[in-house]
Amino acid sequence: MPNDLDQQYTIGSSNWRKTLRQNYTRTYIIITLFFLIYCGIGLLVDMFLQSAHYPQASIPQLFTALITFRLFPIATLIMLAIASISLFISYALYDKLMLLGTEYHEITPETAQNTAEQQLYNVVEEMKIAAGLRYMPKVFIIDADYMNAFASGYSEKSAMVAITRGLMEKLNRDELQAVMAHELSHIRHMDIKLTLTASLLSNLSIIAIDILFRGVLFSSRDEENKSRNSLAAIILILRFILPVISVFMLLYLSRKRELMADAGCVELMRANQPLASALLKIQDDHVQNQNQYARLYQQTPHENVRREAYIFDPDETGIQSFTSVNHLLSTHPSMEERLNALGFKKRS
């Protein structure tokens, strides 16, 4: 596909305010659901354990007793403690994990090796000021030919942006600025913290329900304990549907945060064309170098860790068969959806 916006798209304006407003609401609904599911699993564990001691109690009675602390919800509180510790460790190590397996170096005004690296640092600094961030993110260049970029860090102070050398060399200054505005919007919107929290709560919920499922399989049967039998049935059902629900919720969250970062870029630059041009150029480059990039992605360890954070999902061009088979299982909105949200409509 030729990278020519004027020929292939009618150019309009981007309603970035509406995009941000809608997706803020949707995001916090999803995050709240993840938290409620996690607490619900904890209460399910408590109810199953308590049902052995109170065989005559109904499920509503057990639930009420636990949330009013007439029965101590020890499993729920233990799960919350585990989540808190896990989040703390994940926040502290996440930026290091994101660079695992790559060859990279940090760029500073003192260490910039050429004009392109100095320009990159200047662009990030300009967008940092435009975004109103208090701290300058660390800037890393990954030594790779493919075009991609991501942001990481659980707070403004720990934030970092990383781009591949291929992206730095193949985009013009406006397009590079748009990509950096997109990545700094992720930092500004606390996307890394939100998606990491959702992912961790999802994984811990699935682990907890799996342990409970095994407990149900090996626990003794009591035909007269109706509450325990009903809870066992709920656990058996959740064991199979919870992973599916979690995957779709995480993918939905990831797509909405990408659209928010695109809108944030337009907000910072007051222009929608540079990001649209950059996205098309990145996609075209992946299509033209599909076989070469397929080898590079597959030979680089831990690419699955970075996939969701990338500005462009390589799987969209069929380069890397991660787990997606269609758009429903994509971590990113389709290119058409992103361009439409940016105000570009494909000509018929």
Topology:
Elements: H1 5-8, E1 9-11, H2 16-53, H3 59-67, H4 74-98, E2 104-107, H5 115-131, E3 138-142, E4 149-152, E5 160-164, H6 165-170, H7 173-188, H8 191-218, H9 226-269, H10 273-288, H11 290-299, H12 303-307, H13 335-341, E6 344-346
Parallel strand pairs: 3-5
Antiparallel strand pairs: 1-6, 2-3, 4-5
The pLDDT mean sits at 88
Overall shape: elongated
Number of helices: 13
Distance between the termini: 15 Å
Note the run of SSEs as H and E: HEHHHEHEEEHHHHHHHHE
Question: Main beta sheet: strand number and arrangement?
Answer: 4 strands, mixed
Low-confidence runs (pLDDT<50, min 5 residues)? 321-326
Class from helix and strand fractions: alpha+beta
**Over all CA atoms, what is the radius of gyration?**
23 Å
Biggest sheet: strand arrangement: 2-3-5-4
The counted number of beta strands is 6
Estimated share of beta-strand residues: 5-15%
Q: What is the number of independent domains? A: 1
> Helical residue percent?
55-70%
